[in-house]
Write a structure and sequence with these properties.
alpha+beta; 3-stranded mixed sheet; 9 strands
Length: 258
């Protein structure tokens, strides 16, 4: 897992009681089904805090995009409330809360790349890969989301993809550490592409286009629907973004330096 300098915004304030969540996107639920709300409730309960909080969420990351927007917001809620209330919980306690809320959430308690195992909740932080310094991510979301639950359910139809190859992630880490980008290119893999690309072949066309434009690597991010490409510079990524729009039309995209 690799951090990307792309984010929503959260604002926290004290309240007399209860959790009051608001959001600039009216399509996002703001009740107890929201991960931010769940994280706030879990924190207040664990820290034995009786007063309430008000939280405003400003969405910038597309929803159901495989970019970890909800998970990152939940982790930030734990960190933000802990700071606001004077750090009543240790990092280990926050990590346990994060793991109980969702598999990817512990990753967002820190800011480095990481090797994630188990359900994704076991995090081993890694130093930034020097071979990627100066490069950039090009991210594109096609205008529709893919539900994580659907992707995992459908993965059962692709047993070879579901089983994966033991040690593959560790091999990729080793190749990136040793600056072997050509070797690393073949080890980028996402098993959830099996059901996603079958149902949404446009995502395969995105990858074909990006490879032809010189991407170091291109994959679907998480359970999708965002596709990412690693380009050799921000300038190259910006040029590819323009060519992508000319080829496929306007949709959400971003160029983010690594």
């Amino acid at each position: 897992m690799h951090p990307v300098n792309l984010f929503d915004e959260l604002r926290f304030a004290h309240a007399k009681q209860d959790i009051q969540l608001s959001c600039n996107d009216p399509s996002l639920p703001i009740d107890s089904s929201n991960l931010v709300y769940k994280a706030a409730a879990a924190f207040l309960n664990a820290a034995e805090i009786k007063q309430g909080v008000t939280i405003h969420l400003k969405k910038k990351i597309p929803m159901a995009a495989g970019l970890g927007g909800g998970s990152g917001n939940a982790a930030t809620t734990l960190l933000g409330l802990n700071q606001m209330f004077g750090n009543p919980l240790t990092f280990d306690q926050l990590e346990a809360l994060a793991a109980s809320l969702g598999s990817d959430i512990p990753f967002f308690l820190q800011s480095k790349p990481a090797l994630a195992t188990g359900r994704g909740e076991k995090i081993v932080p890694l130093e930034p890969f020097s071979c990627l310094k100066g490069m950039a991510f090009f991210l594109v979301q096609p205008g529709f989301g893919i539900a994580t639950a659907w992707a995992y359910k459908e993965l059962s139809r692709f047993p070879d993809a579901a089983r994966g190859k033991p040690g593959r992630a560790e091999k990729l880490v080793h190749l990136l550490r040793t600056r072997n980008l050509e070797g690393a290119r073949a080890e980028f893999y996402n098993s959830l592409e099996a059901p996603a690309l079958e149902k949404y072949p446009i995502l395969a066309l995105y990858q074909e286009f990006l490879r032809a434009e010189g991407a170091v690597a291109t994959l679907m991010s998480g359970s999708g629907s965002t596709t990412f490409a690693i380009m050799r510079s921000t300038g190259e990524a910006t040029d590819v973004e323009k060519k992508f729009v000319a080829r496929f039309g306007n949709c959400w995209s971003a160029v983010v330096p690594i």
